[in-house]
Amino acid sequence: MYGNFPGSRPRRLRTTPAMRRMVAETRLDPAHLILPAFVREGIDAPVAISAMPGVQQHTLDTLRKAAVDAVSAGVSGIMLFGVPLDEKKDGRGTAGTDPEGILQLGLRAVREEVGDDLVVMSDLCLDEYTDHGHCGVLTGDGRVDNDATLERYAEMAQVQADAGAHVVGPSGMMDGQVGVVRDALDQTGHEDVSILAYTAKYSSAFYGPFREAVGSSLQGDRKTYQQDPANIRESLRELALDLEEGADMVMVKPAGPYLDILAKVAEVSDVPVAAYQISGEYAMIEAAAEKGWIDRDAAIMESLTGIRRAGAQMILTYWATEVAQRLRG
């Protein structure tokens, strides 16, 4: 009976790979990808992250190589996370604002190696550097002190910009963090340094492998300052505040479980929108593929296409260089 309706066959546009490629509504390009990378102090060889097969904590030398490989593949950016020695952690995360701290050394190394060929980004947060593992300074009763933390973020913004960051990414979900960071950058001659605001950062079970990657000292959780997974309106309120405070780009994190949030943010944002495909998302696909339960390469591409389709113009993914090489053929 379908022959009576010659115009009602959408399957005609799925008949061959060339046809499907021609009519695809969503395209993934190497330029959409950003590589998160970890640089660790006190090691002379890369350290594998057991919960994230294929990802490692870099030395300064291997970080340089990872940056060069990313440029060669056409990746647009690299987001750096520092992993200091445990004995350098303290209650205020002072290693995070040390000009000779590991993150600052990593930023300088990458800029020296690739210059402006890669957008060099820095995670602006205290959690890697505090002995309690929280994203800010604590009060006497163990709660995060928002305003005291903002003072530390202002210092971090300056030292990261001095070290060569093109973009800083305040990720601690403190109220007013974007405005404070913008003021700190402008007042220290870094008006051209951009801010990628972690606008919607949810308290998620999928961060687990990342804690190993950065050697987290966290006891407890971050539910008092990261967003509740049950809520949507909070994200749009955070977006409005971040834009008002001067965010140049905004981000949703995690990506996969929050595609509805990503779509809403992308619909109303007047600045570029990023999404972070986090460690747990990565680990699930790798683990299922290792068991032979899914097709690894197909699952990676499908997950990234879904994030793009939901509205992300930039995707932070640990597969960035691999996928960019595949896209280039």
Give a topology summary.
Elements: H1 17-23, E1 33-40, E2 47-48, E3 56-58, H2 60-73, E4 77-83, H3 102-114, E5 119-124, H4 146-162, E6 167-170, H5 177-187, E7 194-201, H6 208-213, H7 233-245, E8 249-253, H8 259-268, E9 273-276, H9 279-290, H10 296-309, E10 314-316, H11 320-328
Parallel strand pairs: 1-3, 1-4, 1-10, 4-5, 5-6, 6-7, 7-8, 8-9, 9-10
Antiparallel strand pairs: 2-3
Helix pairs in contact: 2-3, 2-11, 4-5
Characterise this structure.
This protein is α/β, with parallel strands linked by helices. It is 38% helix and 15% strand. The protein contains 11 helices and 10 strands. The protein has helices at residues 17-23, 60-73, 102-114, 146-162, 177-187, 208-213, 233-245, 259-268, 279-290, 296-309, 320-328; strands spanning 33-40, 47-48, 56-58, 77-83, 119-124, 167-170, 194-201, 249-253, 273-276, 314-316. The chain has an 8-stranded parallel β-barrel with strand order 1-4-5-6-7-8-9-10, surrounded by 8 helices. Strand 5, helix 4 (146-162) and strand 6 (167-170) form a beta-alpha-beta unit. Helix 2 packs across helix 3 (102-114), helix 2 (60-73) runs parallel beside helix 11 (320-328) and helix 4 packs across helix 5 (177-187). The N and C termini lie far apart (43 Å). The model has no long low-confidence stretch (mean pLDDT 92).
